[in-house]
Write a structure and sequence with these properties.
Layout: H1 3-6, E1 7-11, E2 15-21, E3 24-25, E4 33-37, H2 52-67, H3 76-82, H4 97-107, E5 125-128, E6 131-134, H5 135-142, E7 148-152, E8 161-164, E9 175-178, H6 181-193, E10 198-201, E11 206-214, E12 220-225, E13 237-241, H7 242-248, E14 251-255, H8 256-259
Parallel strand pairs: 7-9
Antiparallel strand pairs: 1-2, 2-3, 4-11, 5-6, 7-14, 8-9, 10-11, 10-14, 11-12, 12-13
């Protein structure tokens, strides 16, 4: 969530980089070979904002559009401003990828160039390819209602039906389609290999999955687009092993088209 909560630098003769996500820790910098690296918009920096869920879901939507040859770069600051209108918004302003999807449908979305600060007045119109749209009209072209599916893997709940995720982040009380974690892993890997945008969340952070890689030993990783700027050994990318994906994943959002791939 907040960058300065989870990002720790230990300086010595060299910089050791360790990221901690609850019990889900990652190793020191490694050498990775990309098997697939999907197109993405530039890395953004959420600063001290606890809104990684906004950045992650928008990044997944952007990668989805880039795979179609349709370039969109969306403003997280617009959503940060609009969500202040929500009566149930928690004080810590945390949320989930599916929360972002609901806010887009309700308030619309604008391009990053039109709003690059949360203090900027929200534009009423979006200008694209010589046409004028309201934020809501533009949102419908970016993300259709019910285009995405929210997934989870919870052994304590029945599989292949919608279940609750009882976390404060789920303040809109969304339900998630529950599948076995190995199935979730396979569905996610298949979606990424077919160039779909995917949003990944554990209990503390959210990132977009933009690729698949392996290390020297052949161990597989998902390549994540983070929202902590380009500092760090991987220029703003992070690598989550398939093992940690199985252990730590709370939710994944992808298009229904991606979910039904064979």
């Amino acid at each position: 969530m907040k960058k300065n909560t989870h990002k720790r630098w230990i300086l010595g003769g060299v910089i050791l980089f360790t990221l901690l996500f609850t019990s889900c820790s990652r190793s020191e910098p490694n050498v990775f070979t990309h098997e697939v690296l999907n197109r993405m918009t530039p890395i953004k920096d959420q600063g001290n904002s606890p809104t990684c869920w906004i950045y992650a879901m928008l990044a997944a939507i952007e990668t989805e559009h880039l795979s179609w040859g349709d370039s969109v770069n969306l403003s997280p600051y617009y959503i940060e401003q609009m969500m202040e209108r929500e009566p149930n918004l928690p004080e810590d302003k945390r949320g989930m990828g599916i929360t972002l999807l609901h806010l887009i449908q309700k308030y619309g979305i604008v391009g990053y160039n039109a709003m690059q600060s949360v203090e900027t007045p929200a534009p009423k119109y979006v200008f694209m390819a010589g046409a004028e749209y309201t934020a809501q009209e533009f949102a419908r072209s970016v993300c259709k209602p019910d285009e995405y599916i929210a997934l989870t893997a919870n052994d304590d709940e029945p599989y292949y039906q919608e279940v609750d995720i009882v976390l404060p982040d789920n303040w809109l009380n969304d339900r998630f389609y529950n599948i076995p974690v190995d199935t979730l892993l396979k569905k996610t890997e298949r979606a990424v290999r077919q160039h779909h945008g995917v949003c990944w969340e554990d209990e503390e952070h959210a990132m977009a999955i933009v690729g698949i890689a392996h290390d020297k030993s052949g161990k597989k990783y998902f390549v994540m687009k983070n929202s902590w700027g380009t500092d760090g050994p991987y220029g703003g990318l992070e690598y989550i092993s398939f093992r940690l994906f199985r252990k730590c994943t709370v939710a994944v959002e992808m298009t229904k088209e991606a979910f039904t791939l064979n």
